[in-house]
């Protein structure tokens, strides 16, 4: 694909449009979570029904991410980008206007279908309109939307819900959507559609079945008891069958749904591996931090939202710096530094208790944001360093899919471990509450806690519950830290990036400043 010469002002407008699309989609992965209790009452829905507001979006977005590359190549990237941005905006407005739970789930499905393409298309556009030596800066700009969206989503959602109503969680997308559609129509060049391409329906349906069933099992497993539930067992079997037929078909057909030659690129494969690590660490830690702040330390939801947003400050600082640093330092070196810093902060968080100060949490969150930023930007850059241009949209879609699947696995893993570890810790601590416990016989303690009264027993139960939660959260943060450290040796997969990203690389003719 070739572009007409692009001025710096026009490229800036394209960047703004791509960023607006990225922010919209990234925000909607988490912004609706805090509004669910308000939706439940307004839409007269049960707890299980209102959870489908999240599940429907996640499943639809996961399924529709995979065919983005094919659709863009067949019909043109600009057409697809405009249709998806407009469809996502309209679906967001419809979600805000929903009057019952069935309408909400339907409109969230549409939102997921149209939103799936926004992040991979925005990344592909940014890669095409920036020269090789400028891509680190471009990925830093783009990465802010991807990383900050999920981090800022809960606090923004809480503020909108508390200040206005849950409807504004969806209406907030309207100005971003209008800006994106108008800008894309005016400034973005169209790619040449390939009308000879045929769609591999069998491959797509098999992959959609595998992804959809897996996402359903991961999202609903915690509330249904995992393999104790027939529904989860059936979804796991269906997912395995879907993946089997997809790989068996794709490896034997002449024109598979996903071009497997993309995985011959060493840097792209390493990018997929570490993108999965990012998804697991980022979303797994987010899933733990919010309930820890509210349930263990006791912060109100708005305060917890603001504290969670602090991590975005660290990410913003890192992304501003790393684009320049990459001209002089290897990408794999920055990724090692970022993973190491992230592991250190997780070690600190494993020591958090109900007495942890706000300043301690802020320091750990900012440093963790810096660590994740030092991983994400080099990773997003090096993954496409040696990938052919005609495979960039496919590559962006696969990277997004890897991050989404890993985030679902990470959230399900840490929440399941949190539940089971809390139960075990509670049982172990309760065993220590006996008349023969010397600590309970101390005069100062006995004056407050009298096990012979209902009030005394209730107070002991409350203390045990908090302490069991502290132990469980500590084990979960330690688990994520261990997974982060296990990823460090895999950095040997990453090739050299310094030479290609130095200022000596010549910009293409479409990137005229």
Looking at CATH, which topology of the largest domain would you report? Growth Hormone, Chain: A
CATH H-tier superfamily of the largest domain: MFS general substrate transporter like domains
- Strand pairing plus helix content: what structural class? mainly alpha
Oligomer: single chain
As a percent range, the share of strand residues is under 5%
Look at the structure and give the mean pLDDT.
86
Evaluate the radius of gyration: 24 Å
Provide the CATH architecture of the largest domain. Up-down Bundle
Could you explain the architecture of this structure?
The protein is mainly α. It folds into three domains: 8-192 and 257-421 and 473-501, Growth Hormone, Chain: A; 200-256; 422-469, no CATH class. Helices cover 75% and strands 0% of the residues. It is built from 21 helices and no strands. Helix 7 (118-129) runs antiparallel to helix 8. The radius of gyration is 24 Å and the shape is globular. Mean pLDDT is 86; it is low at 503-513.
Please outline the helices and strands.
Elements: H1 8-28, H2 36-42, H3 47-65, H4 68-75, H5 77-97, H6 101-115, H7 118-129, H8 135-163, H9 168-171, H10 173-187, H11 201-224, H12 230-250, H13 266-297, H14 301-325, H15 331-349, H16 358-382, H17 392-431, H18 438-441, H19 443-446, H20 454-487, H21 498-501
Helix pairs in contact: 1-7, 1-8, 1-10, 2-3, 3-6, 3-11, 4-5, 4-17, 5-6, 5-10, 7-8, 7-17, 8-14, 8-16, 11-12, 11-17, 13-14, 13-16, 13-17, 13-20, 14-16, 15-16, 15-20, 17-20
């Amino acid at each position: 694909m070739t572009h007409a010469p692009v001025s710096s002002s026009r490229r800036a407008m394209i960047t703004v449009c791509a960023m607006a699309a990225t922010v919209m989609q990234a925000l909607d992965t988490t912004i609706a979570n805090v509004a669910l209790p308000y939706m439940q009452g307004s839409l007269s829905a049960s707890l299980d029904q209102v959870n489908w507001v999240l599940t429907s979006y996640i499943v639809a977005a996961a399924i529709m991410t995979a065919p983005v590359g094919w659709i863009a190549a067949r019909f043109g990237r600009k057409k697809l980008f405009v249709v998806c941005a407009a469809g996502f905006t309209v679906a967001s407005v419809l979600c805000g206007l929903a009057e019952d739970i069935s309408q909400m789930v339907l409109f969230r499905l549409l939102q997921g279908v149209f939103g799936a393409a926004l992040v991979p298309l925005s990344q592909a556009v940014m890669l095409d309109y920036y020269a090789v030596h400028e891509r680190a800066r471009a990925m830093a700009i783009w990465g802010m939307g991807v990383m900050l969206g999920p981090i800022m989503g809960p606090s923004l959602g809480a503020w909108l819900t508390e200040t206005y109503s849950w409807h504004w969680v969806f209406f907030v997308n309207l100005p971003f959507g209008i800006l994106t559609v108008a800008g894309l129509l005016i400034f973005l060049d169209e790619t040449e559609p390939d009308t000879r391409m045929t769609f591999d329906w069998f491959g797509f349906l098999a992959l959609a079945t595998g992804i959809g069933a897996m996402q359903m099992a991961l999202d609903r497993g915690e509330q249904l008891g995992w393999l104790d539930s027939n529904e989860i067992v059936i979804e796991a079997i269906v997912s395995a069958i879907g993946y089997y037929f997809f790989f068996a078909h794709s490896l034997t057909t002449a024109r598979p749904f996903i071009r497997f030659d993309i995985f011959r690129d060493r840097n792209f494969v390493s990018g997929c591996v570490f993108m999965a690590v990012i998804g697991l660490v980022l979303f797994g830690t987010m899933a733990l931090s919010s309930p820890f702040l509210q349930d263990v330390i006791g912060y109100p939801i708005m305060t917890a939202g603001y504290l969670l947003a602090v991590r975005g400050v660290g990410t913003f600082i890192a992304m501003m710096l790393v684009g320049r640093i990459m001209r002089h330092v290897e990408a794999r070196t920055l990724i090692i530094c970022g993973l190491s810093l992230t592991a250190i902060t997780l070690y600190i968080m494993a020591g958090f208790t109900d007495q942890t100060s706000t300043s301690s949490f802020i320091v750990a969150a900012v440093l963790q944001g810096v660590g994740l930023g030092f991983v994400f930007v080099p990773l997003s850059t090096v993954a496409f360093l040696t990938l052919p241009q005609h495979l960039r949209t496919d590559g962006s879609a696969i990277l997004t899919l890897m991050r989404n699947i890993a985030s679902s696995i990470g959230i399900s893993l840490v929440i399941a471990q949190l539940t089971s570890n809390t139960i075990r810790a509670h049982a172990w601590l309760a065993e220590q509450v006996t008349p023969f416990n010397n600590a309970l016989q101390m005069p100062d303690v006995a004056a407050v806690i009298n096990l012979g009264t209902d009030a005394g027993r209730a107070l002991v139960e409350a203390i045990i519950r908090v302490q069991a939660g502290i132990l469980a959260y500590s084990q979960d943060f330690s688990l994520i830290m261990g997974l982060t450290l296990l990823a460090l040796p895999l950095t040997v997969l990453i090739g050299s990036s310094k030479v290609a990203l130095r200022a000596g690389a010549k910009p293409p003719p479409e990137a005229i400043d």
